[in-house]
Amino acid sequence: MENKHQAMQETATPPENEGTIRTLNFLEEIIEADLTAGKYKSILTRFPPEPNGYLHVGHAKSICLNFGLAKKYGGKTNLRFDDTNPAKEETEYVDAIKEDVRWLGFEWANEFYASDYFEQLYEWACMLIKKGLAYVDDQAQEEIRRTRGTVTQPGINSPYRNRSVEENLDLFTRMRAGEFADGTKVLRAKIDMAHPNMLMRDPLMYRIIHTGHHRTGDRWCIYPMYDYAHGESDSIEHITHSICTLEFDVHRPLYDWFIENLEIFPSRQYEFARLNLTYTVMSKRKLLELVKNRYVAGWDDPRMPTICGMRRRGYTPESIRLFAEKVGVAKRDNVIDLSLLEWCVREDLNRRANRYMAVLDPLKVVITNYPEGQTEEMEAVNNPEDETAGKRLVPFSREIYIEREDFMENPPKKYFRLSPGNEVRLRYAYIIKCEEVVKDTAGNITELRCTYDLDTRSGSGSSRQVKGTIHWVSAAHAGRTEVRLFDRLFTEARMDSLPEDRDYKDFINAGSLRIITAFTEPALKGLPHLAHVQFERLGYFTVDTDATPDRPVFNRTVTLKDTWAKVAGK
Ligand code: ATP
Ligand code: MG
Q1: Same topology for domains 284-354+481-568 and 358-471, yes or no?
Q2: CB neighbours (10 Å) of residue 414?
Q3: In CA terms, which of 17, 253, 369, 526 is 20 to 30 Å from 300?
Q4: For a pocket test of ligand 1, which of 61, 62, 248, 249 has the largest count of ligand atoms closer than 8 A to its C-beta?
Q5: How many whole angstroms separate alpha carbon 319 and alpha carbon 311?
């Protein structure tokens, strides 16, 4: 796995590299053919979230695809809230969705709501009734399901299937007027109960739900089903390419059937493989459950695959867009390795994040030959990837902290960090030598006593070299900082295909959050929320939204290298 990453790092092409030859994905091929044939003057796509939860990285993939295609071909994209189910939808989600789409870097041409089309959809339903293509069914849901047949057996016609147009119109009007209780009647399309595609066996168009809607209030008590509302909404907006995930391919004949029989704008549906990620669940229902049952601190918990969670974790819009591009567009379901996402954020933060020194697991070092009370300012480069990021001064003094991991009392061969009698370079400072190991009565190492070589100050032109360089923080100047270290939220890679008898909650990783107190150089104080930094040698970190000027809090976005692969023994 590590090798794979190294290979990727070498061959990866930055997205702005125009010189590379790129082949078209199948959606681009379709669009180019349509434009060349003059089928459309310009294309119009849509992103159609149901406002029943926060967006996740799967939605981000869909957003990048829909907005990205429109942008590439000079078209536009609508944001349409697919708010046809009053029971689960809330305005809170609408606002969060808009914020997330904008944050990802996209602006929609129009903000629409499927609920704005309720009147039109109702009229069209009446039209289908008049054409003899829809009827009111009094059977209970259970009965309807039972008589639908199986893949090998045709369904049974409803006893209400041959109601007259007049009776159907009358009943449907009264359904709308609120005369009937939930579940007592539905409107069904009259297609074919023996159709090989089960979805074409007189599918439901409307059901009765006496529940207030977040936008239409109590105006409606009948609500259109997804299959009826979705294609018709596309058509109303003149969407040219309606892109959805693969599981909707069996719905396409129905999508087309409604459009043909209503003789309305012929939007076309195309399917691509939904994004699955290892160690991740990605259904809003499950994410909501994690929030409600307090497995995580909220929708924006940095361990969540939600866009707001990833933002708080330290992901940037650029890194998510890069990820969407790398994933590409597939026609077959697949599972993407979470480490690709991590690779993308490293790639972006490497260019963006200033470097600082912080010690997560401190071990005190006293430099015995360094004058007491003296402080030196060591010049440090903020970002080797970005000259404009400038330099800063890091205070150095007699007592410092180093990472406990950077010392070994009995080191193996080729250990180039600190060990008794050995030397190491302190980043931006001097070479020090470990002279003495101080322990408490229990035998734990509490302190190292070292000496430094005055002639080896960084930048002084000293020619003496040692193999290892470690980071450090001056004890007298160090700030104390809460640092939140995250691990995967689930212990199982293939969360998308668990055995039937296992619940996804059985695989929650109990150790996915570890909070520690770190020592940091003073320059790390007072950074704004969501500022991205690199703690040298440790990873990329981002200022959490819980941070205050007096109480800094950092989230570890990602380590510098993929350490998981090793632990998992892959
Ligand atoms: P969920 O099952 O997570 O609730 P959904 O498909 O029901 O997802 P919607 O709000 O209906 O969520 O989806 C809005 C758009 O995002 C749809 O076009 C849908 O196809 C797309 N989408 C949702 N999940 C993914 C995913 N994992 N990969 C790619 N696209 C997705
Ligand atoms: Mg949905």
Answers
A1: yes
A2: 6
A3: 526
A4: 62
A5: 10
Q: Which two tokens stand for residue 129?
A: 């009734």
Q: How far is the CA of 285 from the centre of ligand 2 (A)?
A: 10
Residue 80 is given by DSSP the state: E
Q: Is the CB of residue 284 below 6 angstroms from any atom belonging to ligand 1?
A: yes
- Quote the CA–CA distance of 221 and 17 in Å, as a whole number: 53
CATH 3.40.50.150 correct for 2-272: no
SS3 assignment, position 105: coil
Nearest protein CA to atom 14 of ligand 1, as residue: 49
Fold of 358-471: Ribosomal Protein L25; Chain P (2.40.240)
Non-local CB neighbours of 562 within 8 Å, separated by 6+ positions: 1, 2, 5, 339, 342, 343
Helices (H), 307-363: 307-313, 317-327, 338-352
Closest by Cα among 60, 66, 487 to 282:
60
pLDDT in tens, 397-432: 999 999 999 999 999 999 999 999 999 999 999 999
Taking the domains of the chain in order of start, what are their residue ranges? Answer: 2-272, 284-354+481-568, 358-471
CA of 33 to the centre of ligand 2 (A): 30
The DSSP H or E segment spanning 541 is strand 539-543
Q: Nearest residue CA, atom 22 of ligand 1?
A: 59
Interatomic CA distance for residues 361 and 355, integer angstroms: 18
Distance, CA of 271 to CA of 265 (rounded, Å): 19
- Residue holding tokens 């039109």? 120
Whether the CB-CB separation of 436 and 398 falls below 8 Å is answered with: no
Q: Specify the DSSP class assigned to residue 183.
A: T
Q: Hey, what are 529's tokens?
A: 């929320």
77 Cβ inside 6 Å of ligand 1: no
Note the pLDDT tens digit of each residue in 11-62: 334 444 445 566 899 999 999 999 999 999 999 999 999 999 999 999 999 9
| CATH code for the domain defined by 284-354+481-568 | 2.40.240.10
Q: 50 CB less than 6 Å from ligand 1?
A: yes
CA distance 493 to 281: 10
SS3 (DSSP) at 331 = coil
pTM, full prediction: 0.92
